[in-house]
Structure formats: C-alpha cells, structure tokens
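Entry type: protein chain
Record version: 2
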Amino acid sequence: MRVSAVQQPEDRVFAALASPVRREVLRLLRVQGPQPVAELAAHFAMARPSFSEHLKVLREAGLASETKVGRQRLYQLEAVPLHEVQEWLGPFEQFWRAKLAGLSALLDSLEDDES
C-alpha cells in the first residue's frame, strides 16, 4: 500500500496531538473554557513566539479556534476532530480488549488447573 504525501485532515490532528504542550493546551481549554492567549501562555515556560506556533498548529488542525474580542485573542477548544480520532482508534481498542479477554481466560484456566 502506497501512502500519499498529501496530508489528510486526520494526519494534522494526530501531528498536533503528538506534542505534550499542545495536549496540555487542549486540556486547559476543555477544563477552563475559552481563554486569552496570555492566560494560556502563562502555563508554559517558553517564549511567546514558540507558544504561538503551538496555537497555530492547533488552529490548522481544527482543534482550536481563535476569536478576537477587543484587544485580546480568545482560544476555544474545537472537539469535533477528536471524535474522528476516537473513531479511528476504536478498532484498536476492540483489538486490545479481545487480547486482554483472552489473557484473562488463560489466567483463569491456569488458576483452575492449580486448584
């Protein structure tokens, strides 16, 4: 199977989620709601331009949106792309549940043999 060099929308989401900084930004937006850039940036020990790059990646992946309110830019979580990730991960979760159920059955049978 040949993989296209063109990035699919879900590829951008996975790339955005690869960074612990961006995952923490998403967590903050989920827990605390929309926030100004300065408030979000205060949680991280990095230069403002570096932090702005993380926000840009989140916007481009569709995971965050920006609204200008007066002189502030507010960021808000956009969760729809996370649903797409969950759908993609679903079959893997089913795979591991089946493997763990098999392991559980094996361990139970070993316990029965020892009794």
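Comment: The two ends are 50 Å apart (CA to CA).
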